[in-house]
Amino acid sequence: MATYTMSEIVEIVGLTASTLRYYESEKLIPKVKRNSSGRRYYSDTDVQWILFIKALRNTEMPIEQIKKYVLLFKQGNETIHERKMFIEAHTNKVEKEIEEKVNNLETLKKKLKYYELMDKRKQRLNRRAFDQT
C-alpha cells in the first residue's frame, strides 16, 4: 500500500496543509498515522476519505454535519442504513441546488441575449445617425 507525505497529499487532494490539519483536529479524518519522527503519512484509504470530506465541504455541508456522519461511520456496519440516508438527503439537496442554479443561469443568459440585441440595435441607430450627417 502506498503512503504519502503531507506535501504529497496536498498535491493529490488539492487542499492546504492547514486545512488538512484542521480537519484532523476536528476529527473529520480518521487518526492519521505518524512515522518515527512524528511526521504525518497518509494511505490510499486516507486519500479516498479526504476526497469524500472535500466533496461534502464543496457541496456546502457544514462541519457539524460531517462530524455527525463521521460518528455514524465510527459506529460500524450497524449504521450503514443511516449513513446511506444521510448521504441520500445531502445528494437530494445538492441536486435541487444545481437545478436552481441551472434555472438561474438560463434567466441570466436570456437577459444577456436581450442586452446583446439592444446593444446591436443601438449600434445600428448610431451608424444611421452618423451616415445621415
From TrEMBL:
Gene3D superfamilies (alphabetical): 1.10.1660.10
Pfam family, any one: MerR_1
Keyword tags: Coiled coil, DNA-binding
PROSITE patterns, alphabetized: HTH_MERR_2 (PS50937)
InterPro entries (UniProt xref): DNA-bd_dom_put_sf, MerR-type_HTH_dom, MerR_fam
Keyword hit for DNA damage: no
UniProt-listed SMART domains: HTH_MERR
Coiled coil: 91-118
Domain HTH merR-type residue range list: 3-72
Domain of life: Bacteria
Name of the protein: MerR family transcriptional regulator
